[in-house]
Amino acid sequence: MKRWQLILAGIIFVVAVFLPLVIRTDYTLQVLFRVFLFAALGLAWNLVGGYTGQLSLGHAAYFGVGAYGLALFAKLGVNPWVALAIAVILALVSAAVIGSVSFRLRGPYFALCTIAFAEVVRLIVKNLPNVTGGDVGVQVPLLFPTSTIRSFYYAALGLTMIAFGIIIWTERSRFGYYLMAIREDEETALSVGINTPRYKLLALLISAAITAVGGALYASLFLYIVPDQVIAMEISTEIAIVAMLGGAGTALGPIVGSGILETAAELFKNIFQEAHLLIYGALVILVVLFLPEGIVGTLSRKLHFFGKAPTAPLTASPLPGAKEEAERVSAE
Amino acid sequence: MNFYALLQAVLNGILTGALYGLIAMGMALIFGVMRIVNFTHGAFLMLGMYVTYVLFQAAGMNPYVGFIGAGLFLFLFGWLTYAGLLRPIRGQADFMVILLTMGLSLVLIDAVQLIFGADYHQINIALLSKNVRLGPQISLNAPWLVSFALALLLAFALYFFVMHTMFGRAARAIAQNRYSAPLMGINVNRVQGVTFGIGAAAAGIAGGLLLPVFYLFPEVGNQFRLKSFVMVVLGGMGSIQGAALAGLVLGVVESLTSLYWGNEWALAVDFAIFILVLSLKPNGIFGSQRV
Amino acid sequence: MPLLEIRNVSKRFGGLLAVNNVSFSIAEAETTFIVGPNGAGKTTLFNLITGVIHPDSGSIYFQGQEITHLSPDRAARRGIGRTFQIVKPLRNLTVLENVMLGAFQHTSSLAKASEESKKVLQFLGMSHVMHLPCLGMPLPMLKRLEIARALATRPKLILLDEVVAGLPTAEALRLAALLKRLPEWGISSIGGVEHVMQVVMRTADRVVVLDHGTLIAEGKPQEVVRLPQVIEAYLGPKYKELGL
Asked: Given CB atoms, is B94 within the 8 Å cutoff of chain A?
């Protein structure tokens, strides 16, 4: 992993720790909260998406489970932090279920399946008003005794640092190599003895846990959630785009991506108001067309650090797998 | 339960199902020939609806004529979308295509909202109030019958076109083997552009046909977007007959779900079936990956 | 006990019987080549042995244990390595990292895996390209990489599908010489080749001939090559009486 990414991240984190001393307005802190929240979410997504090549568009499911888990268990009288822990466990269970079905699928089927699962979660939550409050929503407890935005900001920052740490550790471990092998060519990974289903699932579990915590934080800040807000496909795509814009498959990417996207989105909302979604959509299109490797990814390549192009799998169509090859060759 | 209520639900389901099938056929065509997962499909439907609406308001054109305009507009729009946005990213992973078409969808929806406002619109034509009675218990709404008939007609026309014309053959050749198709003199880019245009037009036409019976608002296409994926997968990605049949099946399933469990569960059931099929029969109920 | 035993294995793809009731066995530290014209079923057989696909009938035994329905990764962990006919380097990793993936089967330490891999690369004469990314490497290097990666898993048996196909003859012979040394490490190998007979003749202890999915001959290379049915399979019925 490139030195410069690590150094830059370190600088960002140090600056971030001291920022609240300089920034006074709650509004700005809230924007920064969002920046680091989505940085953490992006990093979590990246583990499964950028590194393992499983490009999920259903991470809102885990986000929502985190949010609703916290809210509903706290409603039952459980201590909010215990509720959070339970929510994470629920997210892990969801990930196990979703992964076991989705990972057997390739390409677009996989993405569509993750979307379908997230939608099922959303619809179940929406349609069981007695349990979840349905469309009316449900109250969420405060995780921090002082309801200042500052606590949430630090919590998001902390989550980001944890997620970043996990990514760094992964990059330097056998686990990371196995994930990248799965991303590059699953058939080859299998042929050298890598138990690909197990590792995909492991990556997803870690990813889901972090995402769920993020969801709980988000919910706790707003104190009240509705299904269409926290289990929306928009969240899934936002997470994926943050990682992509920054550079899927890079450690620093999601942090940069979130910084740019979230602040830009906020600016658009203020300046363009009516047309902010249009600009956002146009941004997505431009990124796909011109920056498929993301900012950090492209920089990485331009700076020629040992030619690792972490997001090449996103920009190249996969070769036929051994199974297809087996059938194709036999049919000759 | 009342037998007639059941029958009514089934019939209504078939009527909506035909329209669903048309939408799904468009998407199946696009996926079958180009392996493009088109998340803009719902927006195409929405555009078709608005075009038909404008023709109705400005020129007094009956939507059952105006849908042709919607179809033509979307055909061109689709072709341009393919040529300008999708062709440049041909070699990339499906995920990128999904993201791009999602972005485009956002752009289109917001643009329409800027132009027409977020209000719901509805049109009023004489046909709306007419119902066809089949015996004392069953009543079918006339506009739905007309759109059913038209959708069926167009579906057959599309099927015929794909199966029995030179162009259709060329498209299917590309679907089967993108690499050898050019070797047989097929202008892959042109065929793909036209195919995408036809797929978009199918969505647009469906939108036009829906105008009399649906509220018109910028996000109207979103519900169909995900549903059409369900249908395309159920039918076997890329099989337009499969997609059409899946449309009918889904229409009936939704109608029955609404009857017994309530409207809100219809979409959930769609997805549940989707997941079930994906996990048990990834190639769809009706078969494999060919148009 | 034979290292690998194939018993009455058949596999059908739709209307095509790709492998037809094939039986043979491989001993330890032996170099075997499966030869046959294009479409004879060699790659299918390899895929069957490594678990990528499973036979419709028959069974496969490795070191006495049945492996007929194992998944590819489990087959690999049992000690069966393979290379692919169309090379599959992990493009965005360096040569060394590619090989390390194989070495990781026996260690989780990056340092140890790196060390192991360097040894394998040395054996294959690739030390000078260790740290280069695979993107854009010439085919001979990529073929060696395939072998290196498989060897790093310390297999008992390695399947080399069309390992010399597309290589200039000199390179092919060099590779063959390397393969000839595998039995020194107790590794058996099965190569699948179509027409580079020079390699086969020099390297093989035994040859198995497939034609249209059926095993039509097996034995020492020199003997098998003269058999009329083998000549007929390769050159057509007219040349049956040739005898070399």
From this structure: yes
Q: Which two tokens stand for residue B53?
A: 């609406």
Give the Cα separation of A191 and C72 in Å (integer).
Answer: 6
User: In this complex, is the C-beta atom of A323 within 8 Å of any C-beta atom belonging to chain C?
Assistant: yes
Whether residue A177 and residue C101 make contact (CB cut-off 8 A), yes or no, is yes
Domain coverage including residue A60: 27-232
Q: What percentage of chain B's residues is helix, strand, coil (to nearest 5)?
A: 75, 5, 20
Looking at the DSSP bridge assignments, the partners of residue C161 are C192
Instruction: Report if residue A261 sits inside a domain.
Output: no
Residue A18 in domain: no
Query: A213 has which bridge partners?
Result: none
Chains B and C touch (3+ CB pairs under 8 A): no
How many Cα atoms are found within 13 Å in the side-chain-facing hemisphere of B42? 23
Query: Quick one: tokens of C4?
Result: 């690998």
Q: How many CB atoms lie within 10 A of CB B263?
A: 11
User: For the purposes of burial, counting CB atoms within 10 Å of the CB of B6, is it exposed (0-12), middle (13-18) or buried (19 or more)?
Assistant: middle
Domains of chain B, with CATH numbers?
3-280 (1.10.3470)
Of C11, C76, C113, the CB nearest to A191: C76
- How many structural domains compose chain A? 1
Crossing angle of helices B94-116/A276-290, nearest 10°? 150
CB contact set of A270 (below 8 Å; sequence gap of 6+)? none
| A260 located within any domain | no
Q: How far apart are CA A246 and CA A267, in angstroms?
A: 18
Angle between the N-to-C axes of helices B265-280 and B240-261, in degrees from 0 to 180, rounded to the nearest 10: 140
Which residues of chain A neighbour B31 with C-beta distances below 8 Å?
108
A282 lies within 8 A of chain B by CB = yes
Q: How far apart are CA B22 and CA B229, in angstroms?
A: 13
Residue B54 burial class via C-beta count within 10 angstroms: exposed 0-12, middle 13-18, buried 19 and up: middle
Is this prediction's pTM over 0.90?
A: no
Are the C-beta atoms of A258 and A35 separated by less than 8 Å?
Answer: yes
> Looking at domain C4-239, does it have CATH number 1.10.600.10?
no
Quote the radius of gyration of chain B (alpha carbons, Å): 19
Chains in contact with chain B (at least 3 beta-carbon pairs closer than 8 A):
A
Q: Does the residue A296 lie in any domain?
A: no
Q: How many angstroms separate the CA atoms of B227 and A292, rounded?
A: 28
- Show pLDDT as tens, one digit a residue, over chain C (244 residues): 888 999 999 999 888 888 889 998 888 888 888 887 777 788 888 899 999 999 999 999 999 899 999 999 999 999 999 888 788 888 788 899 999 999 999 988 999 999 999 999 998 888 888 888 888 888 888 888 989 999 999 999 999 888 777 788 888 888 888 888 888 777 877 777 766 777 777 788 888 888 888 888 888 888 887 888 777 776 666 555 555 4
Contacts of A291 in chain B (CB under 8 A): none
* Helix H or strand E segment including B134: strand B131-134
Question: Which segments of chain C does DSSP mark as H helices, in order?
Answer: 42-49, 72-78, 95-103, 110-123, 139-151, 169-180, 197-203, 221-226, 228-235
